[in-house]
Structures are given as structure tokens and as C-alpha cells.
Fold 3-isopropylmalate dehydrogenase.
Amino acid sequence: MKIAILPGDGIGPEIVAQAVKVLNVLGEPFEMETAPVGGAGYEASGHPLPDATLKLAQDADAVLFGAVGDWKYDTLDRPLRPEQAILGLRKNLGLFGNLRPAILYPELANASTLKPEIVSGLDILIVRELTGDIYFGQPRGVRECPDGPFKGQREGFDTMRYAEGEIRRIAHVAFQAAQKRDKRLTSVDKANVLETFQFWKDIVTDVHKEYPDVALDHMYVDNAAMQLVRAPKKFDVIVTGNMFGDILSDAAAMLTGSIGMLPSASLDANNKGLYEPSHGSAPDIAGKGIANPLATILSAAMMLRYSLNRQEQANRIEDAVKKVLAQGLRTADIYEEGTTKVGTEEMGNAVVKALA
Amino acid sequence: MKIAILPGDGIGPEIVAQAVKVLNVLGEPFEMETAPVGGAGYEASGHPLPDATLKLAQDADAVLFGAVGDWKYDTLDRPLRPEQAILGLRKNLGLFGNLRPAILYPELANASTLKPEIVSGLDILIVRELTGDIYFGQPRGVRECPDGPFKGQREGFDTMRYAEGEIRRIAHVAFQAAQKRDKRLTSVDKANVLETFQFWKDIVTDVHKEYPDVALDHMYVDNAAMQLVRAPKKFDVIVTGNMFGDILSDAAAMLTGSIGMLPSASLDANNKGLYEPSHGSAPDIAGKGIANPLATILSAAMMLRYSLNRQEQANRIEDAVKKVLAQGLRTADIYEEGTTKVGTEEMGNAVVKALA
Ligand SMILES: CC(C)[C@H](C(=O)O)[C@@H](O)C(=O)O
Ligand SMILES: CC(C)[C@H](C(=O)O)[C@@H](O)C(=O)O
């Protein structure tokens, strides 16, 4: 079993180091190889996703990814900017199925900006399509506006598109995820305005026939954004496209107030996957040893579960994380009075100890 | 001065009736004419935006709009569904500038699902472009997928686009709105992925040169969705495109927990406008006399301010609404213990009385 380790930028290297430490004490024969990505890839070889890094990721059974991005790369041309690495990995590895749990740990209920009764016990799963939609649709660019009142001016344009097979396969992922949970799936669209999402709705409705045990409902994206604020616990699994999923999964993560705790998985058709924390590279606190490594450690647990077929090890890690929270250990981002503030490494060590 | 009154469906007629009552006691020589729209338009003449209704709206100085939509029209073909009326009015009247305040009245602080310290005193303004973007871009439809791994299958597609002049005019609206407030503008984009919104960002940055007194910052839409949950009071004015604005303005409205209080304005280049509550037609409570008419009454106030040049009357109405809240009057949606629950008509009457 080979794991590609891509730490990236900002706090990426620090938090990934803790997850690697945890993987190393499991007693599994994992081979791990590290390569630069994002700004680090650009520094090393002039491109955010160096060929060797892509090849390593392609050859591995799973990818553990930290985070990419730093203000100092903001002035680079778009194709050279760090986040292009993550788009390139998703596309080249065919990682169409993004699973983003939004879970509020009971110990962290106060971290949320929402009232406890609205979010305590929150446990929803957002399934976001990750290789289609307006993220990759062609044509796109800046051109001369071809018609209408602004004819002849410059205009920016992009293409939103979803093919039938693309919608079917993400719908299957979502229905199957719902089967393992509370058996309720909400498909989020904008069928009242967009042709793409009327088509999406029709196909999801059709796939539903194969999952009669799952209750399906449809919700417009603007309403979904409202319901996430109003009554997030009413959701079980949400499935949506790449663009809407980007927005809603971040909003859902923030409901917990503890985005430093949230892992994610991005899977291909064979359950090979890339695993990364839901938060970003936080360049403002990079190198200070205060970042929360738990989202990355929990991403490693998801990797064990989905790509490496090690359910029990995944459970062990998740239990160890719960244990350190119960012990009152907190990194700065989730600290509150009466708990013990620890740094990145101490937190990693505590998880290792809890595993023993 | 001629006002087109378009009550629409669901609770639309009830709440618009209260706003009309308020307008009638101002002692202004307004001529008001009513026409059916949405499901009511479809019932009356087979189309959600009957020709006569569109003509009335075009000839008027301002439009007061209730709400459209009812489940019973869900099975109609898309071009006949109620919400097409609102899209048709926006496009035909050139109402490109949508102003949606999200204000939390001190008396209603408990209505929010967010903690009081996060939202009390919230007062942000979302400026949403309303006649461009992927809402109207051509081409769009369902076709045979022309390339890639799904070639030959059906695919749904839409076109996102913004011309330079379209971005400039909404940027001017937003900068000028910011000048009248706290002089801070956040432009929301997805420039890291979309050509349309890299272009958007460039043009907004250019327009900024004409407003050196306004502080401009740029934020990705996923981050904006997070920051609205995390620290909404940090925003002053937000400007964004039609699609992102749809999602963010609804999320922002829901932060207040009292969407029944929030008006909106949709303006053309000459400040002619359509005014409507931010909430929907709520068919589940239609005809029960319990809907909150205040968002519609406050929409009438916005109409007086922006289209009819009656600042003082606008202030009078807004003060009257504050007065009835201070008196403890509440419709069911904002009711809490210790206040007095009233129906739609009682609430309208109370505002009329407070105006005297
Ligand atoms: C960095 C960016 C391109 C990316 C996205 O929009 O998908 C990020 O926001 C995410 O959600 O992983
Ligand atoms: C009804 C629908 C077409 C409309 C929109 O998406 O613009 C609504 O959600 C709104 O925000 O006014």
C-alpha cells in the first residue's frame, strides 16, 4: 500500500506531519512518499503541480494532502497559482466524489456562532461533485460580447455543464452514503433557472428508483443556504454540483465553528482518493506550531476507511481523537476557558498516546 | 405618479393589501393599478406574466410586488411557472440593481438562530446584479455532449457571462451605496476558478478608482458564505453577481431570523424600480390572515425613497414600523413570549395608526 504525502503550503507541512506520525504507529505496512505541491511545487519546479508530484499521486493507492496557497503567490498568473494544483489533481485523478462531513463534537458545542439548540449534535454529510460543472466546462475565457446591449464590449464567460453519466455516478455515491446513515438525501439544484440543474434533478430522480429505501427531496440552492442557517439538523445527506457544493459545504463547515476538526475525502470510481482537511493553508499562523492537526488526522482516518480498506484502524483513530477532546486538550482555534491549550505537535502526540 | 400593484400568489395579496393601505394614508397623489402575476397571471390569461401586466409595469413609475409561486404550478412547463414572471419583469424592465438589506431589529434579536453577540445590530446591504450572469446567458439547454468521456450522452448546459458595461454599472450602484453607509465594499467572486469572475474582479477594481473614499476588498464566494456565518457584522456592503447574490442574500436574510421583516428593491438605470419582500409566497399559510406584512410595507418605503423621491415619507413609514415593534406587536413568525401576537391586518392597521 502506497500513500502519496503532499503537505503543500502554509500550515500544510505541520499538520500533515502529525497525521503521518499517527499513520506510522498503526503497525501497517504503508509506504509513504512525499512530494511538493501548490506554492511549494512552484518553488521546487516552477509549477504548482509538478509532473513528478502528479505521477506519484497517480501511482499511489491514496493521497494525503495538506493545504495550498499563500498571499505571496497572488500575483502569479492563474495557471501558476497554488490552487490550480488541487484542481489539476481532482481532474487528472478523476476524483469526482467529494465527501465533506459537517460534525459538531459535543465538547465543542460552544465554538459555533449558532445557538446550541440549533447545532448541538449536528452530523450532516455533503456530497459534492468535483470534476464537472462550471469549474471545468469549455468554452470559457474573455471575448468580444457577441450580442445584446453590450455587443462589442469585452465579456468574461464560462460554461456550466453536466452530462448524464456524470450526474448518475455522483447520485449513486450520495444514495449509497445515505443508505449507511439516516437514509435521507436532499438534492440541491436551481432547476427553476438553470437548464443544467433541471437536467440534474431529472437524472437524480431517475437514479432514486434504484434506492427505494432512501427518502429523496429536492431543494433550490438559495433555500438550502437558508435552511442550513435555520435548521441544519434537518439534513442528513446533501448532494449537489461542484459550484453549489463549494459554497454550501463551506457554509455547513462553518456552522460547527470548528472547521479545524473537519476532514474530507475526494474519491474516484474505484475508491482511490485524496484526503485533506476542509480548512485552508492559514499562512498567517504557518510555522508557529499552533495549527490544529485534527482535521488532517481525521482525513487520514477517512483514507483508511474508503481507500485502504482498514475500517478498524479508521475507527481507532476517530476514537483517539474523541478521547483527546474528552481529556480537554484544545488547539488555539477551539480553545475555551477550562480546557488545556496545546500546540500542533502536542496534539499529534496526544492522539498517538490515545491510540496505544 | 403611477404605481403598478402586482400582488401575485399565496400570501402576496394579503401583504400587499396592507402596504397599499399604508400608501393610501400618506396623502400623496399616487395612482395605483393592480394586475395579476405569477400563478394568478397564469389563471387569468394562461401566462405568468400577461402582456397587460408587463405593460402596466412598464408604464408605471414603480412596481409594488407581492410574491409568486404555489406547489400547484410545479407540474407546469418551466416557461409557464410563476417564477418566470419575476425573471421576465427583471429582464424586460432592465432592473439590474438589486438592493437587499439584512437588518436585525433590536427587538427581534432572539429570532435569530445565531448567538446575540454575533448578530445583534446586524445591518448589511447586499447589492446583487439581477439581469445578467448564468440566469440569462445564451446558449443553454439540453444537447448531445460534444466531447470528453461522456461524449454522445445528453448533457444540460448553461452560459455564465458578464460584459464590461454590465459589471461597471452594478459596481457604481454598490460604491455609491457604500458611500452613503460605512464606506466599505466587499466584492464577492470566484476569480480563482471562473473567467467571468476574474474579469468581474478586474472591472470592479478599475471602477474603484472613481471612489477613493470607499475601502474595497475582494472575497471568494465560498469564503463569503463562511464569513456570513462566522462574523456577519464585519460586512458593510457586499456586491456580487446574480447567481452568487441569490445564494448569499438569502443566507444573509436568514441570519436575522426574521425574513418577514426584510424588503428589497430592484432598480433600473433611472431608479425606476420593483419592490418586493425578500420572503416568498408561503402558500402553506395563505389566506389565514397571519402573514407578516412588514417586509412589504418596508418595500413600499424603499419605493418612496428610491423611485418616487419621497425621502420623508419613507422615513415616516420606517419609523412607524419601529414603533409597532416597540409596542410589542408581532405576527406569528416573529412572536415570542411577552409580546402581543397580531394578524396581518391588525399589523397593517397598527402601522397606519403609528403614522398618524
Ligand atoms: C481552492 C479552490 C479552487 C477550491 C474549490 O473551489 O474547489 C476550494 O475552495 C475547495 O473547496 O476545495
Ligand atoms: C424565483 C427565483 C427565480 C428567484 C431568483 O433565483 O432570482 C428568487 O430566488 C429570488 O431571489 O428572487
